[in-house]
């Protein structure tokens, strides 16, 4: 499972959230029975949003003899339960647990098959989702009645954490493994996707039954069905089919979006020393999907954010990390599964770290460092996340495990372990772990034992500290120089209450000559002394950026300038740039920011463009010329776009040709920034261009266009503005934009334009549900209440109609 991009909402809504620490012990699900095989036959009632099902569940007692079995089956209508055509007695406990009496007492490993005829009613399921997975009803009908002409009719399933039992009876626990086969009957116009191999298609009038078979064992939460009108774009890895299921509009771009999949599979197979273990790899895009993506074995589903046009892909494929993440799950999560949700780190931390591994392989060290920095920063900024253990046996709800600790911090911990053990030992350990527990389940202690067996090291200290405890080091650094002995002593003081042990990389710079020292910190107050020939120009601690920590040290401007120009790690250059940028009245500091425009990291270049001070521009012509060159020819279009944006702030008509050239760019980011920059030197030209853009481009460039339409007070565009105003109010991160969009929202709220009112509340419902885990539903409900008050005050012909539109939307969230 991959998080959606929700971090910004963490900061917006954090005051609304309560993070009570739980003391409820959550054991692994007791295994009274083991699933062996699951056979399903299903068809759908689109009008009622229900599914007719038949299930043959084969199971056996795990150890103790048994004359009854309990299955998870949520909100179903049960029509018949039998074994060998003999009806069985059962008790349906609160429509959640199906307790079935068996015809005899079965002994350990004695298999039996129960037949269940039922109707799944996903709309009647009442279990909450999580921050990562916003709903948990298992089976989803999208635009089932076809009333929305702008949205296709689709059906898809989402099993994690325990929602597969919303559409078929099973033992819905991660410590179960079963093979499966599914017969899916749908109207002929629909394509189906499920786990494993499509064995046959059988037509019956206007309907067709697709038979999918999966012979290997995996957890019930990984079962999947996807149904809709899709184009199938075929690819392959070696002799394994790799297919992309997309809507017709995106078929020409499917390989541009997903085409690295075979290379990623091959890279992970080689890196892990374990060949891809399944018979196919398919990816499908689902509308209104409840998360970012899900690793259903051989049948991954992505949210519609995956859909991108060439003008977006040229900037950055925003789904690439997610694609790698879900592929890696096919080893960590699917081949070897977390034994319990408490051990979720064995699934999600590995998948998170796979993004770093892929970027390091494909794009190099700096790119991977940028990614790791963003992941760790999100964890460090997470409200109360530092109080949570990575392995948590105490929680109120399993959904709480899907957080920045299980994902971001866990991935960074794996990176620290890799640095400590070395690549050879780390990846051999992963190979041994995957080989030993393939098609089984595991817990973190078993991972530790494998690494200890491979390396001969005791790793209890590492796992007890990072997996079974919380927090991270908060370090104070100081330096003592002995000029007579030519030594420098680096003092490391841990400020947090408990003491961490950790390897620590320290770079000593003598001029531009860098010497790296690897030390080990094992006390709350530790010192390390290094000799030097020439007075050090900089001491850089945590030099490789691998330690999850917060560091406090006193540095002067000259230290930061040197660090910006010479530090090895992206995070340290970024830190230095931010410090140098606030002191640009110093000429040397300004020149250091200008030099940062050449940094190998495109994110440093973008940050330098955002921070550079071009006041008194007449004295900074060389810097402006440099930015003009970047706007025309930087290798990264995102940097070109930011350069154009920076030049646009100068409101200099002489720069108009650069903005006009940007309007011809294939990059949508360059086009969008060029429009806004042109607007400030030639409003009419930018406005005309904005009105001429095709609808598909207007949708993608919603933020810059909305800004122009707001400033032009173009009321004819209120319906368009309404679709994007929430994005500008809460997601841009730009204070100027936020004020502008807030004014636009107020204008819509008071307007007579029912279409605009409908568009804005529709967006509020979608985002309110999408970010419910951060209580954003409460934010938009309050906004809707204010809209009702605005409408009551306004003397508008459509006032009553508009109020009813708003109230109807509120009801969907309350």
TrEMBL record:
This protein's record includes keyword Transport: no
Protein name: Aminopeptidase N
Protein family according to the UniProt entry: Belongs to the peptidase M1 family.
Cofactor(s) demanded: Zn(2+)
InterPro entries hit by this protein: Aminopeptidase_N-like_N, Aminopeptidase_N-like_N_sf, ARM-like, ARM-type_fold, Peptidase_M1, Peptidase_M1_aminopeptidases, Peptidase_M1_dom, Peptidase_M4/M1_CTD_sf
Reactions accelerated catalytically: Release of an N-terminal amino acid, Xaa-|-Yaa- from a peptide, amide or arylamide. Xaa is preferably Ala, but may be most amino acids including Pro (slow action). When a terminal hydrophobic residue is followed by a prolyl residue, the two may be released as an intact Xaa-Pro dipeptide
Residue intervals of the Aminopeptidase N-like N-terminal domain: 37-217
Annotated signal peptide: 1-20
Domain Peptidase M1 membrane alanine aminopeptidase: 260-466
UniProt keyword annotation of S-adenosyl-L-methionine present: no
Gene3D superfamilies, per the entry: Leucine-rich Repeat Variant, Neutral Protease Domain 2, tricorn interacting facor f3 domain
This enzyme's EC code(s): 3.4.11.2
Keyword vocabulary terms for this entry: Aminopeptidase, Hydrolase, Metal-binding, Metalloprotease, Protease, Signal, Zinc
One Pfam family matching this protein: Peptidase_M1
């Amino acid at each position: 499972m991959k998080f959606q991009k929700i971090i910004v909402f963490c900061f917006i809504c954090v005051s609304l959230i309560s993070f009570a620490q739980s003391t409820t012990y959550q054991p692994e699900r007791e295994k009274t029975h083991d699933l062996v095989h699951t056979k399903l036959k299903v068809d759908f009632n689109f009008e009622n949003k229900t599914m007719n099902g038949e299930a043959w569940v084969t199971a056996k007692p795990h150890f103790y003899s048994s004359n009854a079995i309990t299955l998870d089956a949520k909100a179903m209508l049960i029509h018949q339960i039998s074994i060998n055509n003999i009806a069985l007695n059962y008790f349906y406990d609160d429509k959640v647990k199906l307790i079935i009496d068996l015809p005899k007492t079965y002994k350990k490993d004695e298999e039996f098959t129960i037949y269940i005829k039922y109707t799944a009613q996903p709309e009647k399921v009442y279990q909450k989702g999580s921050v990562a997975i916003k709903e948990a009803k298992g089976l989803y009908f999208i635009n089932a009645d076809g009333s929305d002409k702008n949205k296709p009719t689709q059906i898809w399933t989402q099993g994690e954490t325990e929602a597969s039992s919303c559409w078929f009876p099973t033992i819905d626990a991660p410590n179960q493994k079963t093979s499966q086969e599914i017969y899916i009957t749908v109207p002929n116009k629909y394509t189906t996707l499920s786990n494993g191999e499509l064995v046959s298609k059988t037509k019956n009038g206007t309907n067709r039954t697709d038979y999918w078979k999966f012979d290997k064992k995996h957890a019930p939460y990984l079962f999947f069905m996807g149904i809709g009108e899709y184009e199938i774009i075929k690819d392959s890895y070696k002799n394994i089919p790799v297919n992309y299921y997309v809507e017709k509009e995106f078929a020409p771009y499917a390989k541009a979006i997903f085409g690295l999949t075979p290379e990623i599979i091959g890279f992970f197979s080689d890196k892990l020393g374990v060949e891809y273990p399944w018979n196919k790899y398919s990816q499908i895009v689902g509308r209104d999907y409840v998360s970012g993506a899900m690793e259903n074995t051989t049948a991954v589903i992505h949210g519609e954010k995956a859909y991108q046009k060439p003008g977006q892909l040229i900037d950055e494929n925003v789904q690439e990390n997610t694609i790698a993440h879900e592929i890696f799950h096919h080893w960590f999560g699917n081949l070897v599964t977390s034994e319990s949700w408490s051990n979720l780190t064995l699934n999600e931390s590995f998948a998170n770290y796979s993004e770093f591994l892929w970027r390091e392989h494909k794009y190099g060290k700096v790119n991977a460092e940028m990614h790791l920095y963003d992941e760790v920063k999100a964890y460090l900024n997470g409200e109360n996340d530092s109080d949570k253990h990575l392995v948590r046996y105490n929680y109120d709800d399993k959904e709480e495990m899907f957080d920045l600790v299980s994902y971001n911090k866990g991935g960074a911990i794996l990176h620290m372990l890799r640095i400590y053990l070395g690549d050879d030992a780390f990846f051999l350990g992963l190979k041994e772990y995957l080989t030993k527990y393939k098609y089984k389940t595991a817990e973190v202690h078993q991972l530790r034992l494998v690494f200890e067996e491979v390396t001969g090291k005791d790793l209890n200290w590492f796992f007890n500290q990072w997996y079974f405890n919380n927090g991270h080091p908060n370090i104070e650094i100081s330096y003592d120089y002995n000029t007579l002995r030519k030594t420098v002593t680096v003092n490391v003081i841990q400020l947090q209450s408990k003491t961490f042990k950790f390897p620590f990389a320290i770079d000593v710079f003598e001029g531009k000559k860098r010497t790296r020292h690897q030390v080990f910190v094992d006390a709350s107050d530790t010192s390390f002394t290094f000799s030097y020939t020439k007075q050090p120009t900089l001491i850089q601690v945590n030099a490789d950026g691998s330690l999850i920590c917060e560091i406090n040290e006193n540095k002067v401007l000259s230290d930061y300038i040197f660090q910006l120009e010479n530090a090895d790690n992206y995070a340290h250059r970024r830190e230095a740039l931010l410090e140098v940028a606030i002191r640009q009245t110093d000429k040397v500091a300004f020149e250091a920011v200008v030099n940062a425009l050449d940094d190998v990291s495109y994110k440093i270049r973008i940050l330098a463009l955002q921070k550079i001070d071009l006041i008194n521009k007449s004295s900074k012509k060389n810097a402006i010329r440099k930015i003009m060159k970047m706007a025309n020819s930087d290798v990264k279009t995102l940097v070109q776009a930011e350069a154009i944006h920076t030049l646009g702030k100068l409101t200099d008509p002489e720069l108009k040709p650069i903005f006009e050239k940007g309007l011809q760019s294939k990059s949508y980011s360059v086009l969008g920034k060029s429009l806004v920059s042109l607007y400030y030197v030639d409003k009419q030209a930018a406005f005309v261009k904005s009105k001429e853009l095709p609808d598909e481009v207007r949708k993608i460039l919603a933020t810059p266009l909305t800004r122009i339409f707001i400033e032009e007070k173009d009321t004819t565009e209120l319906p368009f503005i309404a679709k994007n105003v929430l994005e500008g109010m809460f997601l841009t991160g730009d204070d100027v934009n936020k004020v502008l969009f807030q004014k636009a929202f107020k204008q819509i709220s008071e307007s007579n334009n029912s279409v605009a009112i409908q568009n804005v509340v529709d967006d509020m419902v979608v985002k309110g549900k999408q970010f419910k885990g951060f209580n954003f539903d409460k934010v938009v409900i309050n906004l809707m209440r204010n809209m009702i008050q605005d409408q009551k005050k306004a003397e508008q012909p459509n006032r009553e109609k508009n109020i009813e539109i708003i109230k109807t939307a509120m009801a969907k969230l309350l």
